[in-house]
Design goal:
Distance between the termini: 36 Å
Helix content: 25-40%
CATH architecture: Alpha-Beta Complex
CATH topology: Spore Coat Polysaccharide Biosynthesis Protein SpsA, Chain A
Strand content: 15-25%
Shape: globular
Order of helices and strands: HEHHEEHEHEHHEEHEHHEEHEHHEEH
Largest sheet: 9 strands, mixed
Number of helices: 14
CATH superfamily: Spore Coat Polysaccharide Biosynthesis Protein SpsA, Chain A
CATH class: Alpha Beta
């Protein structure tokens, strides 16, 4: 076999085409009324339900997320939802007929945390590697493509400088994002809600997690063994940290300088809509 053919085969072998999208959240922050938010009547109505993925920005926000995944070569999707999320099922089983992807559903019966949400999709992954992303974040296509192409667990490490320079998230919120302590190309630890002293120690060029991960089947054992957090939840970052500390897995960091769009609160809607204006969506 010629060398370039061998290289292409290796890329096809390592690249995953699966993604799990966490859409089970209660949307507490989005449901909170904000007088400063600029929204249409339709946007306000959906925001009041807390189902952030369906907030209309020309079309439901999740359509943009799905289209970006397809652009990155991901065409098998699992939405982790709650048993009450009939509107999400209707959107992607009745109202649309995607041609670039298949969309399945996994039900997380109770909102017991993001690690528990990942466990809900275990059987769907069928032993294959997969990405895990949030339903209320729009990630750069190139970052998704790079993450899907590696052959080991990993995450996209977003530069704090990049998030602030080209994003719509205010600095006070960026400062609260989980900070990454990196050792070369690998993650040593993840610090949730870092204090000022921790951020100073990590330096001005600190990289942050926006919950954009690649896993293999090893993550499921970590999700089962991780202890409850102070909030009484099974949290995915803690499960990843457990895997690193026990030597069960290494987590590679894909460093990027790009921004992420975040649709967490009502005040985010206008800014996200402005950034997505003109973005082509093909499902």
């Amino acid at each position: 076999m010629r060398s370039h053919e061998a290289a292409e085969r290796a890329v096809r072998y390592s690249m995953t085409t699966r993604a799990v999208i966490l859409a089970r959240g209660l949307g507490t922050r989005m449901r909170k009324a904000d007088a400063a938010a600029q929204m249409s009547g339709d946007q306000a109505q959906v925001a009041s339900t807390g189902v952030k993925a369906l907030i209309p920005i020309g079309r439901p926000f999740l359509d943009y997320v799905l289209s970006a995944l397809a652009d990155a070569g991901i065409h098998r999707i699992c939405l982790v939802i709650g048993p009450e999320h009939d509107l999400l099922r209707r959107r992607y089983q009745v109202e649309t007929s995607p041609t670039r992807m298949t969309i399945d559903f996994a039900v997380q019966q109770e909102p017991h945390g993001t690690a528990d949400a990942v466990l809900a999709a275990e059987s769907w992954t069928d032993g294959e590697p997969f990405l895990v992303i949030n339903s209320d974040n729009y990630y750069p296509v190139d970052a998704l493509r790079r993450l899907a192409a590696i052959d080991e667990p990993g995450l996209v490490a977003f530069s704090r400088v990049g998030l602030l320079a080209d994003g719509q998230i205010e600095p006070s919120r960026v400062a609260s994002f989980a900070a990454l302590d990196l050792d070369g190309d690998y993650m040593r630890r993840i610090v949730e809600k870092p204090d000022a002293e921790t951020l100073r120690a990590l330096g001005d060029d600190v990289f942050l997690s926006m919950n954009c991960w690649r896993f293999d089947r090893r993550i499921f054992r970590m999700c089962r063994e991780v202890p409850l957090s102070a909030r009484g939840e099974l949290e995915l970052p803690a499960a990843v940290q457990l895997g690193i500390q026990t030597g069960a897995m290494r987590v590679r960091a894909i460093r990027v300088e790009s921004a992420v769009l975040d649709l967490s609160r009502q005040v985010d809607i206008a800014g996200v809509a402005s950034r997505l204006a003109g973005v082509e969506v093909v499902l």
